[in-house]
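quick one, 382 residues, struct below
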Amino acid sequence: MLYQAVIAVLMVVLAINLVVNLRSLKRPDCNRRISKPGPLVSVLIPARNEEQNIENCLKSIQEQDYSNFEVIVLDDNSEDRTAQIVDKIAAKDERIRLIKGKPLAPGWAGKPFACYQLAQNAQGSWLLFIDADTTSEPCMVRSTLGAAIDLDLSLLSGFPRQMAESLPEKLALPIMYFILMTWLPLWWVHRHVGRMPSVTIGQFLLFRRDEYWRIGGHLAVKDKILEDVWLGVETVRHGGRHEAIDLSTVFQCRMYRTVGAMWEGFVKWMYSIAALSPVALVGLLAVAFVFGLAPFYWLWNGFLGEAAPTDWRYIIVFQVGMILLMRWLVERHFRQSLLSTFLHPIGFSFWYAAGLYGFWRELVGLGVRWKERIYGEESGIK
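---
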């Protein structure tokens, strides 16, 4: 009874933290004007086997209402038609350039190596790294640049709208923002901009050029699978200012198109946490079970068990109701599928299983697979 009451109280605390987070998140203003010609923005896109995504990504950038930008796409040794598609589009638009990526250097993870080469070829005073599976609203560059200038940031990142079409995507993807918004005190972090890093999501990283090179660029995080998170850490460690904003109104991403790709992605994240600190991942999994899955088990046991106690079953109902309420608030804010809210145990279990599997792979030294590359202990990538 006492245990269930304590969990219920803590869920109220999490819900308050969530509401404050959502209310405090800034959004880019599409009415923000920048004096012409404005600073040159280099839009930098690493692309490895992205033939399904790269055309839509580039077309949305071509439609930007901010005129002073260049686009550089790096073909990261793709084995599909990525390079041919970019070549065809670049032939009709002088703002777009394709460069061929070098073979992966020892000691580097794939994405940091690709992004570092892109930055070396960029001319802009602002460097905007975006993923090839993203699309942008016409005001994206102008509004996010305006936000970075107004907030006086070294690095602007944030939360794109995560697009989901298949049932597995709709069930599992919204869990990511639910965890971040519920468990992290972003409102408090953002009150101390310049003293601690915020959330950094690699789908969108907007750097001041001089700040990017001051921290060493992607060279500083060359051996990190979660290079985006560590770029935020390095920015603040070197005295820069970093903040995450709500990008869902101007920027979208469809991370995964298959269950297999989604599984690989989730396992990659969990493996990287385990590689840095197995104890931390075990702690996160324990907290996730207590606050994400256990209430549903107790609900089932409390109402359907033959000898179910009656004195605390309604506390369990309250706990489940709080989880569903928090899920609904996050899904509504970021315009994600409400199906994930009502089937929470299924989507959350998918993430939990990926965490267990990622921990096991790190424990036995199997490494992790991402973008047709295997990263293990011998590679030094973590």
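The mean pLDDT is 91.
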